[in-house]
Amino acid sequence: MTTLSDPRQARAFRFIRREFADGVATLVYAFDDGPELIERVTFPGATPIAAGRRVALDAALDLLHLIAGISYYKSGVPGEIRIESTPLDASTASFLDTLYLHGLGEFAYHNKLDLRERIRFPATTVARVPAAFLGLPQHTLVPIGGGKDSLVSVEILKASGAQATAVWVGHSPLIESCAARTGLSTLNIGRELSPILFEYNRAGAWNGHIPVTAINSAILVVAAILYGHDAIAFSNERSASSATLEYDGQQINHQWSKGWAFERAFGELIASRVAADLHYYSLLRPLSELAVAQRFARVSAYDGLFSSCNRNFRILGPKPADRWCGQCPKCHFVFLALAPFMPKPRLLAIFGRNLLDDEALAPGFDALIEYRDHKPFECVGEGVESRAAFAALAARAEWREDALVARFREHIAPQLDPATLALEPLLAPAGEHRIPPRLVPFVFDAHR
C-alpha cells in the first residue's frame, strides 16, 4: 500500500452511497479518493415490500449505512466525515457522534487516540417527517449469539406465548445449532465486509474493537421492515452498562452498544425516524449477569451446544474443549457465574474440567473480581457479581476446597466488606428498561 492510500493519512472518510436490490444491501465508503470499500448484507428470501413500507425501508437502510461505516472509519479516523448519500438531520448526527465516540472508546484507549475532536457528523437543516405507524405484525426478532443470555430470552418469549424468530448475522455452526434447538423459526442474515478493509489492516491501519451490537441492531431494523416484525429483543443485561475503566476523563466500556444509553437512544431513534410501531429493546435489561445465569441453569437443553468463549469458536465439536478454551475471560466468568446455580457435575460436564481448581488461572479470575487488576475488556459481569459468586461458593462444601475458591476464602475475602458479598440482592430485577408491558411479569418474576 502506498502512503497516499494509507487511511491514517486521509483527510476525509466518505459515506458514498447505499443501494438495495434482490434482498442485498450494498454499502459503499471511501477514504478521500481511494478505492471504494463495499460491504454487502444479504437478507435471504426477502420479497418486494408494500409501497407503504418503502419510506421506512429507505430510512432503515440509510441508518445501516451510517452505523456500519464505523468498521471502516476506524482504519484511519480522519478529522472530516462526509455524508454524500443522504441529508443528515441534527438529532441523527448527534446520535452518530455519540455512537462513534463511545463505541470506539476501547479502540481509542488501546491505540492511544483522542477521538473527541475528530468525530463530527455534519448535520443539515433538513426537517425529518415523523415515522409512520406501519401496522407491523406482532412478531419478535430475537438475536441469537450462541451464549446463555440470548437463550434465556428465547425461553422467556416462549413462556409468554410470543411469536418469535431466532436470528443471527454471519455464518456460525454453533449459533445455527443453538437456534435450531430453540424450536423457533430461524433467519440467518449474511454480512460480507469489504476485502480492502483486511488489506488496510495487514498494512498497519488502525484496528481494534468496534460496537458490533450497534451494527447488528441496524441490520435487524432493516430485517424487521422487510419481513414484517414489530419488535427486536436483544439480550443485554444491566451489567453491560458498567464501564470497564476510566481513561483520560472518559468512561471506557467494552460493551457500550450493549448498554442502556445506546438501547434508549437507538430505540427512540428507530421509533421516530423508521417506524413508529417498531420496538427495539433488551429483554434482560433489569437483570444482573448472575440473575441471567440463575435462569439459564433451569434449562438443560442447551448444555452441549452453547458457548460464550471468544477464543475457541471452532465449533461444532463433540467435546467441551471444542466449545470452551478454558483460558479466556468469557470462559472464566461463565463458569463462575453458573457455579452457584448448577450442580457441580453438570457444570464440569459442560466445560470438561474444573476451572476453579486450577491455580494457574488465578490472574484471570483476579481480574474478574477486580483484585490487583481492572475488569477485562470482555462481555463479563461486574466485579461485585464475581466476588459474590466466589463468596457463595466458599460457603459450600462441594466448592470451598477447590484451589481458587479456597484462595478467595482465605486470602481475599478477609480484605472485603462482608456486606458487599451477598448474592441474593444481585438477583433482584432493577433499573430502567424498555420491555413491553405484556412481557414485564415474565422478566420480573424470578420463578417463571
Number of domains: 2
Distance between the termini: 58 Å
User: What general outline do the C-alpha atoms trace?
Assistant: globular
Kindly report the spatial arrangement of strands forming the biggest sheet. Answer: 4-1-2-3-7-6-5-8-11
How many alpha or pi helices? 16
Could you tell me the mean pLDDT?
Answer: 93
Radius of gyration of CA atoms, rounded to a whole number: 22 Å
Unreliable runs: none
The amount of beta strand, in percent, is: 5-15%
Tell me about the largest β-sheet. 9 strands, mixed
Order of helices and strands: EEEHHEHHEHEHEHHEEEHEHHHHHHH
Task: Give the tally of β-strands.
Answer: 11
How much helical structure, as a percent, in the residues? Answer: 25-40%
Global structural class:
alpha/beta
Overall description:
The termini are far apart. The chain is of the alpha/beta class. The chain is globular. β6, α6 and β7 (185-192) form a beta-alpha-beta unit. The protein has helices at 54-68, 70-73, 90-103, 105-111, 148-160, 173-182, 195-202, 212-227, 260-273, 289-296, 329-338, 344-351, 362-368, 383-394, 403-412, 440-444, and strands at 12-21, 24-31, 37-42, 80-83, 140-143, 164-169, 185-192, 231-234, 245-247, 250-252, 279-282. The strands form two sheets. A nine-stranded mixed sheet has the order 4-1-2-3-7-6-5-8-11, sandwiched between helices. A two-stranded antiparallel sheet has the order 9-10. The protein folds into two domains: 3-282, no CATH class; 308-427, no CATH class.
Helix and strand topology:
Layout: E1 12-21, E2 24-31, E3 37-42, H1 54-68, H2 70-73, E4 80-83, H3 90-103, H4 105-111, E5 140-143, H5 148-160, E6 164-169, H6 173-182, E7 185-192, H7 195-202, H8 212-227, E8 231-234, E9 245-247, E10 250-252, H9 260-273, E11 279-282, H10 289-296, H11 329-338, H12 344-351, H13 362-368, H14 383-394, H15 403-412, H16 440-444
Parallel strand pairs: 1-4, 5-6, 5-8, 6-7, 8-11
Antiparallel strand pairs: 1-2, 2-3, 3-7, 9-10
Helix pairs in contact: 1-8, 5-10, 14-15
